[in-house]
Specification:
single chain; alpha+beta; Pdz3 Domain; 7 strands; about 40% helix
Length: about 200
């Protein structure tokens, strides 16, 4: 009888240890998968496990001394589609804070590589011309792409409410140096005023 109770206790103990180990292993696997998903952009791959350089095609354009790259193809669900929401016809002008043409020096392959290595892998924004708008991509989740200027877009401005007029200040009749000092202290919000 004692042997049976001891055996049942031993089996329960082993079962408990296996349950604890399996739940810990599941958490470890889940964390590993999450880290793998975060590492894909750093490695230059999209969530579809394909290189980001293969998720879009560009062709070069020169306008004066400015070199840009026009997007001619975007793979649906690819890295450039899911992260930047690039569209065919977008003209990439800047990667991060740098002008794409200055970085690439006219080399289309280098320009495409820079968009991926400097933009996508480092999660930097890019600027594109879409139609007559200049946009910064990616836009924050739930926000439309930001129009960064009216250089290429002449949108009608929405009138804003006029700013409220400042409250009138009572006129002071002091003159001379002490009157000027009081006026300066009033403008600074009364700091340093003797009490």
């Amino acid at each position: 009888m004692r042997a049976g109770i001891g055996l049942v206790g031993l089996l329960l103990g082993i079962g408990l240890l296996m349950w604890i180990w399996s739940s810990n292993a599941k958490n470890t696997v889940d964390k590993g998968k999450a880290i793998e998903q975060q590492a894909k952009p750093i490695a230059g791959y999209g969530q579809d496990d394909k290189p980001a350089t293969e998720s879009f095609q560009v062709t070069g354009h020169t306008s004066g001394c400015r070199i840009t790259r026009e997007v001619t193809d975007v793979t649906p669900g690819g890295a450039m589609d899911t992260f930047y929401k690039l569209q065919v016809g977008d003209v990439i002008t800047d990667v991060g804070d740098m002008e794409l043409g200055a970085l690439a020096g006219g080399d289309e392959g280098l320009a495409k590589t820079l968009v991926v290595s400097e933009g996508y892998q480092k999660q930097k924004p890019i600027k594109v011309k879409r139609g007559r708008q200049t946009l910064t991509l990616p836009a924050a989740p739930g926000v439309r792409a930001e129009n960064t200027g009216t250089e290429f877009f002449d949108a009608p401005s929405t009138p804003s409410a006029p700013a409220p007029a400042p409250a009138p200040q009572p006129a002071k009749k002091s003159t001379g140096l002490s009157g000027q000092l009081d006026a300066i202290q009033d403008a600074a919000g009364g700091a340093g005023r003797d009490q």
